[in-house]
Design goal:
With 195 residues, the chain is of the alpha/beta class. The protein has a single domain, classed as Vaccinia Virus protein VP39 (Rossmann fold), CATH 3.40.50.150. The protein is built from 7 helices and 7 strands; from the N terminus they run ααβαβαββαβααββ. Strand 6 and strand 7 form a beta hairpin.
C-alpha cells in the first residue's frame, strides 16, 4: 500500500538528499524550459498556473522566468510542506477553484492514488484546466524499463500507460512530451504534432 505520510523525511529522502533524491532543481529547469517553450510555440496563453502536488515548488521559478505575469498557485497534500512553504493544502482529487487555469502541472502525483481516486483526479484536472496540462506519472512500464529504481519511490500504484491514455481521452489531446491540451484551449496543433 503506498505511503500516505508526505512528511519531512519523505521530502528529505526523495528531494533534498543528493545521494537519494529523484529530482533536482536543474532537472526541473530543463523540463520546465521545454514545456514552457512548447506552450509558447503552440500559442497557449499562460496567465493562471496551477501546480497541484507542487512539492518543493521546483516549477515556481521556472514559471516566473517564462511567464512573468502569470499567477502561480501551489497546491500540496502535505501539511508539512504547506506550513513550510505556504502552499494551499489540498488534493488533486477534489481541489476546487473559482476560475479555471490555463496551465496546470501535475507531476509525480497520480501514482500515489488508487485507480478510483486517479480517475477522479483526471476528471478534476479536466474541470480545473482550460488550457494545457503537463502530466508526469510513473507507469508500470516506466518502473520496469525506465526508472532508476535505486532512487525512485516504488511504494506506489503502478498502472499501465494505456490505462492513463484511456482515462485522459475525451478530456485532453496528447501533444507529446507529457503535454496535453484541453478542448477549451485556443492553441493550434498541426496534425503531426499529435502522437
Amino acid at each position: 500500500m503506498p505511503r500516505r505520510c508526505f512528511d519531512k523525511s519523505f521530502y528529505d529522502h526523495y528531494y533534498r538528499n543528493p545521494r537519494t533524491r529523484v529530482a533536482t532543481r536543474s532537472g526541473a529547469e530543463n523540463l520546465g524550459r521545454f514545456v514552457c517553450c512548447y506552450l509558447k510555440h503552440i500559442g497557449q496563453p499562460v496567465t493562471r498556473v496551477l501546480d497541484v502536488g507542487c512539492g518543493l515548488g521546483l516549477w515556481k521559478d521556472v514559471i516566473r522566468r517564462h511567464f512573468r505575469q502569470a499567477d502561480y498557485t501551489g497546491v500540496e497534500v502535505s501539511s508539512y510542506l504547506c506550513r513550510q512553504s505556504g502552499w494551499e493544502e489540498g488534493s488533486v482529487v477534489d481541489y476546487k477553484a473559482n476560475d479555471p487555469f490555463d496551465f496546470a502541472i501535475c507531476q509525480s502525483v497520480l501514482q500515489y492514488l488508487t485507480a478510483a481516486d486517479a480517475r477522479r483526479a483526471i476528471r478534476n484536472l479536466a474541470r480545473l484546466c482550460e488550457g494545457a496540462l503537463f502530466l508526469e506519472v510513473l507507469t508500470q512500464e516506466d518502473w520496469q524499463n525506465n526508472a532508476d529504481q535505486s532512487v525512485t519511490d516504488g511504494d506506489v500504484y503502478l498502472r499501465e500507460a494505456d490505462w492513463y491514455r484511456r482515462e485522459l481521452d475525451g478530456h485532453f489531446t496528447n501533444c507529446g512530451g507529457g503535454i496535453f491540451l484541453s478542448p477549451r484551449s485556443p492553441a493550434v496543433l498541426y496534425e503531426l504534432e499529435k502522437p
